[in-house]
Amino acid sequence: MEEMDRAQERLAVVLQKLEEAEKAIDESERGVKVIENQAAKDKEQMELQKMQQKEAKHIAEETDHKYKEVACKLVIAEGDLEHTAPISRKVSVLSLRKS
């Protein structure tokens, strides 16, 4: 009878430890799910930022290209102005003489 009581006590202790281990496993699994969800969100955010970076780079390159085009046109316009200014003065002088 004593052996049976000791066996039942050991069984109760083992069952208690098993229950505690199952709770610890459940908590660990919940923790893993939380971490996995956060990792998935972080990955999505990173992909979005990567796309935004590509778009920003593309816009910056387009803007730089347009700036260079405008700067080129300005140089040409300034050259044209320098070339036409003396002619314009001559025309003005001739117009004044005819009057």
TrEMBL record:
Does the UniProt entry include the keyword Membrane? no
Q: What Pfam family is a match for this entry?
A: Tropomyosin
Q: Where is the signal peptide?
A: none
Question: Which regions form coiled coils?
Answer: 1-63
* Keywords, ordered alphabetically: Actin-binding, Coiled coil, Muscle protein
Listed InterPro entries: Tropomyosin
Q: What is this protein called?
A: Uncharacterized protein
Q: Which organism is it from?
A: Megalops atlanticus
